[in-house]
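Might I ask for a little of your time on a matter of protein folding? What I wish to show you is a protein chain and, alongside it, a tokenised description of its three-dimensional fold. I should value your view on which stretches of the chain appear to form regular backbone elements. You will find the record immediately after this paragraph:
***
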Amino acid sequence: MAEKQLDHRINTESLIAHEQMRQSSRGQHYALFICSLALAISATLAMTGHEVTAAVIRGLDLIGLAAVFVAGRIFSPKNSDKEPSEQE
């Protein structure tokens, strides 16, 4: 019985880790696409004579990207070496 529980827990943790990696990778791909699109729009606007609008879009893109990285570090859960039963 204990072995089945252990196998189930190992499989579940493995699945969770794999899904978290997929989600992280997907988020990075979306961020790359969005930033590239904003850069392309900004470059197009700058070449057509709308420098101020291009600078605003480029600035907001950079600020947003920096904010996501900072917020990710601030709001990420703190990992602990203790087991959940030891924390209570």
